[in-house]
Write a structure and sequence with these properties.
The protein is an alpha/beta fold and 350 residues long. The protein folds into 2 domains: 22-174, Rossmann fold (3-Layer(aba) Sandwich), CATH 3.40.50; 183-350, no CATH class. Helix content is 27%, strand content 25%. The protein has a 10-stranded mixed sheet with strand order 1-4-3-5-6-2-11-12-15-16, with helices on both faces. A 6-stranded mixed sheet has the order 9-10-13-14-17-18, with helices on one face. Strand 11 (263-267) and strand 12 form a beta hairpin. The longest helix is centred in the last third of the chain and has 17 residues, at 234-250.
């Protein structure tokens, strides 16, 4: 079933008292601290389990978007299967090695190694790049997504991730912040987080920091912005604001994927997005015209007869039998349609 890695009670109390968690950094991520195994050869390695000998396996490409919170075992197993049982690498900019044994126990890959890449110097290190390029699966942990943009964008790490997904064709995934950076457009959180209320009151609030077409290159996520922890209703208004800005500033027919905690979207090589887990995934597509009002200092108004954005909503399950087609963005199985819209700075559904 679904994992929620636990520590003794005193560790949880310490986390709650002394760790100021950013909203892209889930509680589960803070609990993923276990004693480190021996490090690998990369200067960024903080632990490895399994074999230290590189293997080459037959792989199949895919992308996992996990919404944060407890990790979805079935999504990790989906990645292991697509990796052919090869070497599984976890990358992060903070935290420990708790994913190593967890992933290894789910499917017995050849190895699981965690790289802590917390500087541009490490992100441009040739050994770090080689370790990533030799992986048969890659997972980006949660944390602070601005760290990932600041440390990894336009470095060897970025090149290696895109090589894995588009040339070597291996599964890559991420949770929370590691999911939020995977669309062609993405929210950087450079100036800290943004609440929906503030974003919709002023779509050009200085905390609405967006970039596009300059980081990760995932198939089927073109013109798409992802968001996580979507079971928190406050995420939806800000996500609509991101899409409104993408249309207004970049001329996109904007798309988005929002993922609840305890939930994962697994996108295969044909563009089918299967939903695993307890919660919902939301697939947003601009329905024709862009916002009526999207200007600095003015409330966002994206009404369009209460049908501004088409939304296909799917509840996950353990088999991942329900899906949405990202090759067309028009149909799926096991879900239902609704609309999102913003009425003079207020998020609504119909």
């Amino acid at each position: 079933m679904y994992s929620s890695i636990r520590k003794p009670l005193f560790s949880l109390i310490a986390v709650l008292l002394f760790s100021a968690c950013q909203d892209e950094f889930s509680i589960t991520e803070q609990l993923l601290e276990t004693p480190s195994a021996a490090a690998g050869n990369s200067p960024a390695s903080i632990g490895i389990v399994g074999s230290t000998q590189d293997v080459s396996t037959s792989t199949s490409g895919g992308t996992v978007l996990m919404g944060g919170g407890p990790d979805v075992d079935e999504a990790i197993q989906w990645m292991i299967n697509k990796s052919g049982g090869g070497d599984f690498v976890v990358i992060r900019a903070s935290g420990g090695t708790g994913y190593n044994q967890y992933i290894y126990d789910l499917g017995n890959p050849n190895s699981v190694e965690t790289l802590l890449i917390d500087s541009r110097s490490l992100a441009n290190n040739s050994q770090v790049e080689q370790t990533i390029r030799e992986a048969e699966a890659l997972f980006i942990a949660g944390g602070d997504q601005w760290d990932y943009v600041d440390f990894w964008k336009e470095t060897r790490v970025e090149d290696a991730i895109n090589y894995l997904r588009n040339t070597k064709r291996v599964p890559i995934g991420g949770t929370s912040a590691g999911c939020a950076i995977q669309g062609e457009g993405y929210y950087t959180a450079q100036n800290g987080t943004i609440r929906s209320r503030d974003a919709m009151r002023n779509p050009y609030n200085s905390n609405v920091t967006l970039q596009r077409s300059n980081f990760l290159d995932n198939p089927y996520l073109e013109n798409t912005i992802t968001d996580t922890h979507y079971d928190n209703p406050d995420r939806r208004g800000r996500h609509m604001t991101f899409l409104a800005r993408a249309n207004e500033d970049w001329g996109w027919i904007a798309k988005g994927i929002g993922v609840d905690e305890d939930t994962a979207v697994c996108i295969d090589s044909n563009g089918r997005a299967y939903v695993f887990g307890y919660g919902y995934a939301f697939f947003l597509h601009q329905n024709g015209f862009g916002p009526e009002v999207c200007s600095p200092g003015q409330r966002l108004d994206w009404y369009r007869g209460r049908q501004a954005v088409d939304v296909y909503k799917i509840r996950g399950n353990s088999s991942g039998s329900r899906y949405f087609r990202l090759d067309t963005w028009t149909s799926g199985s096991g879900g239902s349609w609704e609309y999102f819209y913003v009425d003079r700075g207020r998020f609504k559904t119909s």
